[in-house]
Amino acid sequence: MGTQVSKQVVRRKAISTEKKSLCDLHQNCGEEYPGSDYRPPDRKNWMSGLDPHKIHINKIVWPGTHDSATNKIGIPLITRPFAQCQSLSIYNQLARGARVIDIRVQEDRRVCHGILVTYGIDVVIRDIKKFLSETQSEIIILEIRTEFGHEDPPEFDKYLVDQLGEFLIHQDDRVFEMTVAELLPKRVICVWKPRKSPHPKAGDPLWSSGYLKDNWIDTDLPSTKFESNIKHLSEQQPVSARKFFYRVENTVTPQADNPVLCVRPVTGRIHGYARLFIVQCFSRGYSDRLQILSTDFIDADFVDACVGLTHARIQGKA
């Protein structure tokens, strides 16, 4: 018992130290970078606002959500706080400005997060279609994977093509150098990551897993995650040279050996430092590698941080 208490004291001290480290860095470095003062007049249509003829796909800084379809996961007030990473529906995330959606499914086409389940994938598809029907020039990256420990839903690739076929941008390396306007009226890059089923191939309506990469670090220590994100980003090529999307997730996650297991207070340790992360990318020389930045509990300022840098790139200022 004493050993366990001692471990918890050490853990709490480490968390406190790392929170202070990020806070101090923030105070010293601020939040100014090219485009940091830009605010899109309409977040629901921010790509339209930047001019689809000028936005190249590989120059966009894509605001994304982590575990996107968890707004109604589990049982309210009982299991939900341990797995909920977003409080908004998929439609409302897109309307707020998110453009990369992270969906995990199980065998029966229900969305899940670990052992907890929520609504079926049809709800996600319906929300996406509603958003697409209300906008004209917004491109979405939809990542769907079979959750770890589960089997692939039968014929799921066929289902996705049947549901989204008219909107799907086919797998093609040339897409990265194209503008939004050149891709229209197609609107969705759908990355399908099955565990055992055949993966999409070149020219298919769906994109294979190699086109959306990240380096997930499972920790609840905010400075450790922040610096790991910087390190892994530094190892990537500039966006102009890549033929895949690379994601950095501005999140930390609860750990079983720590008494704080609810997502919101844990991820809150890093949530407010997205702009600081962009500042550090510039100061360390890696800003040309930043592409997808994802978060838990997406908010307007996070979207503005990404759109602002995208605007600066279009203007030739970043």
Description:
β1 (62-65), α3 (90-96) and β2 form a beta-alpha-beta unit. By secondary structure, the protein is an alpha/beta fold. The model has no long low-confidence stretch (mean pLDDT 96). It contains 10 helices and 9 strands. The protein has helices spanning 2-29, 46-49, 90-96, 121-134, 156-164, 180-183, 222-234, 263-271, 274-283, 300-314, and strands spanning 62-65, 100-105, 110-113, 116-120, 140-146, 188-193, 212-214, 245-249, 292-295. The protein has a single domain (17-314), classed as Alpha-Beta Barrel (TIM Barrel). The strands form 2 sheets. A 7-stranded parallel β-sheet has the order 6-5-2-1-9-8-7. It is globular and about 60 Å long. α1 (2-29) crosses α7 (222-234) and α3 packs parallel to α4 (121-134).
What are the main properties of this structure?
TIM Barrel; globular; alpha/beta; 318 residues; seven-stranded parallel beta sheet; 14% strand; two-stranded antiparallel sheet
The percentage of residues in β strands lies in 5-15%
Q: Which word captures the global form?
A: globular
Counting helices, strands and paired strands, the structural category is alpha/beta
State the helical fraction: 25-40%
How far is the N terminus from the C terminus? 54 Å
What is the CATH class name? Alpha Beta
Report the CATH architecture. Answer: Alpha-Beta Barrel
Write down the CATH topology: TIM Barrel
Q: Write down the domain tally.
A: 1
Largest sheet: 7 strands, parallel
Strand order, sheet with most strands = 6-5-2-1-9-8-7
Q: What is the CA-based Rg, rounded? A: 19 Å
Average of pLDDT? 96
For the record, what is the CATH homologous superfamily label?
A: Phosphatidylinositol (PI) phosphodiesterase
Helix segment count? 10
Low-pLDDT parts are none
Give the total of beta strands: 9
Q: What is the N-to-C order of secondary-structure elements (H for helix, E for strand)? A: HHEHEEEHEHHEEHEHHEH
